[in-house]
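Our platform keeps sequence and structure together, in a single record for each protein. Such a record has a labelled line for the sequence and another for the backbone structure tokens. Nothing more is needed to write down the fold, since each code stands for a local backbone conformation. For reference, a complete record is included directly beneath this paragraph:
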Amino acid sequence: MGLFGDKEAPRDDLRVPIAAPSVWGDGFGRFATRALQGIIVVVAVAGVVFAMTQLTLVMIPVTIALILASAFVPAMRWMRRWGVPSWLATAIALLTIVVVLGGVVWLIVNAVRSQFGALAASASEGVDQVVDWIQTLPFAPTVEQIQQARDAVIDFATSAQFGLGAAAGVGAAANFLTGFALMVVVLFFFLKDGPAIWEFLLRPFEGERYARGKRIGAKTVETLGGYVRGTALVAAVDAVGIGLVLAFAQVPLALPLAVLVFLLAFVPLVGATIAGALATLVALVANGPVVALVVLGAVVVVNQLEGNFLQPVVMGRSLRLHALVILIALTIGTVLGGIVGAVLSVPIAAVAWGIVQVWDGEDRPARIFRQKRPEVA
């Protein structure tokens, strides 16, 4: 009580402090925080992608070397299990890869060079037939317009712009040789010391982070190796089937076309379609519409066999991606890296999804990606 009987005023040191409301604590503030975090992540990812696009001469050979080394892991283990020295096993695997790649290039170049004259003559005749057919249409261009289009093509082929394009092609060839040499060197070390290199990169981590790194490395090798081996098997079946039909129908360039079918099979969804269309076009120009229809039918049958039987059986464990994801990854890879990006985009996406699946343990996906409710059919 005070001196005159009234209550004593409360002391300042006994008051309970009340926290001022934070502008980041309400719902909108939390949304803004998440938005800012998302922007930072997007900027960081964009920076990494930009750096990779500027270093394609290094990134693409290293990525290809990693994929090839992963594909040869079972062979390396088998040779080491039988007592083959590490350097000798590496040399055998590397020589096999270089010989196979060189043999493919030689087959294509040699076959095209030996049959290019006949194919060019057939193509010229086919173009003349197409022009004659176009002139029968009610909206056909005049002879003068067709001649002007041909003259424009000839002028471009003899112009300085075409020369600059040829010079750029020489530069691209030099970059290819440089990248190929780098790929061979990196592939040698991946084959010889791949586990040791990954163990060195995991030195800063301990405990659960180290175990997670080991799972990521094993899953990456398993996914890439299974993808390459499975795709190679499916591509070989496609190439043999279509190649036999082309050879039986006496279509020119049957061997290089079969090799092209094998190579384009590594581009999911669209590769087989492009290869089949090209084989059908060559058959149409060189052998006429009947043979072209036969080739087209063979392409459709082989593609159906691949999509409904071979792909699910051979690639079922290596590529667990929805078709929409494959299409998006394929588009992004093509925009960023051209045909090489299209080839590499899908296995990279498969590796990313595989890492998510083992993030918290074997067959234990990251928490955010765990199934929380039954899927809707």
